[in-house]
Amino acid sequence: MFQSFAQKKLKVEVEFKYTKPDCEAAKHNKGTDAAGKPETPLTDCKFYIYFNNKCIDTIRTSENGTAIVRLLPGKYLLYEAWKHFKKTPDGSPISDFYNDCLQKEWKKPNYVLNISENNLTMDYNDVSASRCPNQYACLKVRHLPGEIKR
Question: What pLDDT score does 49 carry?
Fold first, then answer.
């Protein structure tokens, strides 16, 4: 006798935090070391949820940096909109960035979410909000904020 057990979607609350950079210190060449600073809730940020290399849903973080999702147990990759749409982190022209480097960045998830019946883990890789504009990966010309002329 064959018996099928359908997996049930689990409702989980996920907390998104990041370390806010000190971009003012970067302007004055004082460095941007964020060690020891408390983590800041990542508010009003949209993420695209991927499972088996396909976008299956989106979520937006609340004013507290949380989001509630209903997902089957499994491993999910979360990407910021600029990675999902193959754009740049700050909306500037792609020509300001090295294309081969950007293609690698687009493939890197911001978070990896593992859901099981008894456990939830989320690994943080990086989000745009944790970097000053002159620290974005793949920039052709590194500049100090406020010194670029367009």
Answer: 98
Instruction: Assess if residue 150 is contained within a domain.
Output: no
Encode pLDDT of 69-85 as tens digits. Answer: 999 999 999 999 999 99
Which amino acid is located at 135 in the chain? Q
| 30 in any annotated domain | yes
> What percent of the chain stands above pLDDT 90?
57
CA 19 – CA 128 distance, rounded (Å): 11
Q: Count the domains in the chain.
A: 1
71: number of Cβ within 10 Å: 18
Cα 105 vs. chain centroid, distance in angstroms? 11
Q: Name the pTM for this structure.
A: 0.81
The number of residues in the chain equals 150
Confidence of residue 31 (pLDDT cuts 50, 70, 90): very low
For the chain, state the CA radius of gyration: 18
Report residue 73 CA to chain centroid gap. Answer: 21
Whether 143 is in a domain gets the answer: no
Q: Is residue 5 part of a domain?
A: no
Give the domain range for residue 21: 10-135
Element (H, E) at 104: helix 99-107
